[in-house]
TrEMBL record:
<dbReference type="InterPro" id="IPR050085">
    <property type="entry name" value="AGPR"/>
</dbReference>
<dbReference type="InterPro" id="IPR058924">
    <property type="entry name" value="AGPR_dimerisation_dom"/>
</dbReference>
<dbReference type="GO" id="GO:0003942">
    <property type="term" value="F:N-acetyl-gamma-glutamyl-phosphate reductase activity"/>
</dbReference>
<keyword id="KW-0055">Arginine biosynthesis</keyword>
<protein>
    <recommendedName>
        <fullName>N-acetyl-gamma-glutamyl-phosphate reductase</fullName>
        <ecNumber>1.2.1.38</ecNumber>
    </recommendedName>
</protein>
<dbReference type="GO" id="GO:0005737">
    <property type="term" value="C:cytoplasm"/>
</dbReference>
<dbReference type="Pfam" id="PF01118">
    <property type="entry name" value="Semialdhyde_dh"/>
</dbReference>
<dbReference type="GO" id="GO:0051287">
    <property type="term" value="F:NAD binding"/>
</dbReference>
<feature type="domain" description="Semialdehyde dehydrogenase NAD-binding">
    <location>
        <begin position="3"/>
        <end position="126"/>
    </location>
</feature>
<dbReference type="InterPro" id="IPR000534">
    <property type="entry name" value="Semialdehyde_DH_NAD-bd"/>
</dbReference>
<keyword id="KW-0521">NADP</keyword>
<comment type="similarity">
    <text>Belongs to the NAGSA dehydrogenase family. Type 1 subfamily.</text>
</comment>
<feature type="active site">
    <location>
        <position position="134"/>
    </location>
</feature>
<dbReference type="InterPro" id="IPR000706">
    <property type="entry name" value="AGPR_type-1"/>
</dbReference>
<keyword id="KW-0963">Cytoplasm</keyword>
<dbReference type="Pfam" id="PF22698">
    <property type="entry name" value="Semialdhyde_dhC_1"/>
</dbReference>
<dbReference type="InterPro" id="IPR023013">
    <property type="entry name" value="AGPR_AS"/>
</dbReference>
Length: 324
């Protein structure tokens, strides 16, 4: 059994991690650290965990086998500056602090970008992981096969909708129920922070990519999930595109290529990404759906943990969608 510590235990991603790790057959949760909830039962915050005898801790065990950082963006670096861990402790950061190449080396630690469908071999040999962003995961999985084959020849246009949990637990004007319910809006048009890691990955696979990825992020009036559609010029046929994607994801445990139109309920509460392809004239439309809290955050973090420790990639992640 490996010993796990979670930092920032009161947020949505930490709640998902706890739910997954409680049932992981090779994991024991050593501590769940939260300065604001120390001493309280975890179920007082994550109420679906009622009956689980886990309390938030104000103490940190620096010798745990793996540490998950579920802190707000910009706080992971500060936390690691203030707290030392064993050289044997593997760390996965769920913020955006280490996702870009300019930030991947920190205090002598090299963080590997934790998108398994892109970096599986590196993840298996890594000690430190930068977990990808949720939008970035959905969009990159839609683009990787094209970039790998040097087939991104024009601008990419992306429209993606995320649920309310994508904004985290802190309230703002646009996260209150009265604002979000029966409502729809876009935000950070063309400038969303996940574009940096998306462009970084695309240029890693296709160095001559010089076009724009035009990303329109939207807020949906549902709790969880990301529904992303993107299109770009593609000179091949639909059958050629399907073959390309099927070959690229042939050994990907959590990516499914569907011949049927897809919808969000197919992935909510799972670690899956489902992709659908459609050809219209000279354009290829790719639809990508994930659960933003699982494949877009905590599920992917557990997937990376499994790879780092030599477990089956699917261990603890055999989750099924709930339609009703």
């Amino acid at each position: 059994m490996i010993q796990v510590g979670i930092i920032g235990g009161a947020g949505y991603t930490a709640g998902e991690l706890i739910r997954l790790l409680i049932h992981h057959p090779k994991v024991n949760i050593d501590f769940v650290f939260s300065t604001s909830n120390a001493g309280n039962h975890v179920a007082e915050v994550h109420q679906d965990l009622v009956g689980e005898n886990i309390k938030f801790s104000s103490e940190i065990n620096p010798k745990v086998d793996v540490l998950f950082l579920c802190l707000g963006h910009g706080n992971s670096k500060a936390f690691l500056n203030e707290n030392e861990f064993s050289d044997n402790t593997k760390i996965t950061d769920l913020s955006n602090d280490f996702r870009l190449q300019k930030d991947e080396i920190f205090n002598g630690k090299t963080f590997v970008y934790g998108l398994p469908e892109l970096n599986k071999d590196a993840i298996e040999n890594a000690n430190y992981i930068a977990n990808p962003g949720c939008f970035a995961t959905a969009i990159q999985l839609a683009l990787l096969p094209l970039a790998k084959s040097d087939l991104l020849k024009d601008d990419v246009h992306v429209n993606a909708v995320t649920g309310a949990t994508g904004a985290g637990t802190s309230l703002s004007a646009t996260t209150h129920f009265t604002w979000r319910d029966n409502n729809f809006s876009h935000y950070k048009a063309f400038t969303h922070q996940h574009l940096d890691e998306i462009n970084q990955t695309v240029k890693k696979l296709q160095s001559d990519f010089k076009s724009d990825i035009n990303f329109m992020p939207n807020r949906g009036n549902f709790s969880r999930g990301i529904f992303a559609t993107l299109y770009t010029k593609f000179s091949g046929s639909l059958d050629e595109a399907k073959w390309l994607y099927s070959e690229f994801y042939n050994n990907a445990e959590f990516v499914v290529i569907s011949d049927e139109n897809i919808h969000l309920k197919q992935v909510v509460n799972t670690n899956n990404c489902i992709l659908h392809l459609h050809k219209h004239k000279d354009k290829l439309l790719v639809t990508s759906i994930i659960d933003n809290l699982l494949k877009g955050a905590s599920g992917q973090a557990v997937q990376n943990m499994n790879l780092m420790f030599g477990f089956a990639e699917t261990e603890g992640l055999q989750l099924k969608a709930n339609y009703f």
